[in-house]
Design brief:
This protein has nine helices and four strands. It has a two-stranded antiparallel sheet with strand order 1-2. A two-stranded antiparallel ribbon has the order 3-4. Helix 2 packs across helix 7 and helix 3 packs parallel to helix 6.
Length: 239
């Protein structure tokens, strides 16, 4: 515990916590979109369950840090191009995000709904287990990204665990309002899905050994969100 008496420790902890929260934004968006597709009475359980699984998964990965570092070693070579398990996981996760987000955008643009028994149009829902499975799969990919970021900033496991726990708690607090806001505004849903497509492309590019500064991506997303907020305010004033 003597490390907490050093100023550098607190700087590293604050920096790491901030980065973990920022890296969790895409996770919150995905969980909000998936949880919004389950029956209303199960949405809270899907959000909390998904984030709880993310927390457990990240702590277990942190405790297996030697194994994580080993995943960056090449295991497959294709025409002089080396791939590690980390690369394979990132590429697979990116493809999953691309397919999932593209299908969701297609469904929303085409207006595909299910007809209820009384003739009213209702949105399609998925089962709770299906939502949790999708959340776990993406949590695995985002967890690797999060853990590798932590490893690059500090070698103190205790700092990594604290940062991850604080980030997940913040995500749990904001998951409901973010989810409700996203699901209540169709244009924000499309923007969020487009963001996930961008993240999917970034994961594939990262898996192909091309580093893309995340700051550019997050700036583009927040700029688009700010423009959409102005549009929403304009439409509200002119209704």
């Amino acid at each position: 515990m003597e490390i907490f008496l050093q100023p550098d420790t607190w700087v590293a902890l604050l920096t790491l916590t901030f980065l973990e929260i920022v890296l969790g934004i895409d996770n919150i968006i995905f969980i909000s979109l998936v949880a919004g597709k389950v029956p209303e009475e199960s949405q809270k359980k899907a959000r909390v369950g998904g984030l709880s699984i993310a927390l457990i998964m990240r702590i277990l990965l942190l405790l297996s840090i030697t194994w994580i570092i080993g995943l960056t070693k090449p295991v497959l070579t294709v025409a002089d191009f080396e791939l590690s398990w980390r690369d394979i996981i990132l590429i697979a996760g990116g493809i999953f995000l691309l397919v999932k987000s593209t299908l969701e955008i297609h469904h929303k643009v085409e207006g595909q709904h299910e007809e209820s028994q009384n003739g009213k149009r209702t949105k399609k829902t998925i089962s709770f287990s299906s939502a949790i499975l999708q959340i776990v799969l993406l949590d695995l990919v985002f967890s690797f990204d999060s853990i590798l970021t932590a490893v690059g900033l500090t070698d103190q496991i205790i700092l990594m665990v604290i940062a991850v726990v604080v980030a997940i708690i913040v995500m749990m607090i904001f998951a409901k309002p973010v989810g409700e806001f996203v699901n209540n505004h169709p244009t924000i849903q499309i923007l969020a899905l487009s963001f996930l497509i961008l993240i999917g492309v970034m994961l594939i590019v990262e898996g192909a050994h091309y580093h893309v500064p995340k700051g550019y991506i997050y700036f583009a997303v927040f700029f688009s969100l700010a423009i959409e907020m102005l549009n929403m305010r304009y439409r509200k004033k002119n209704v």
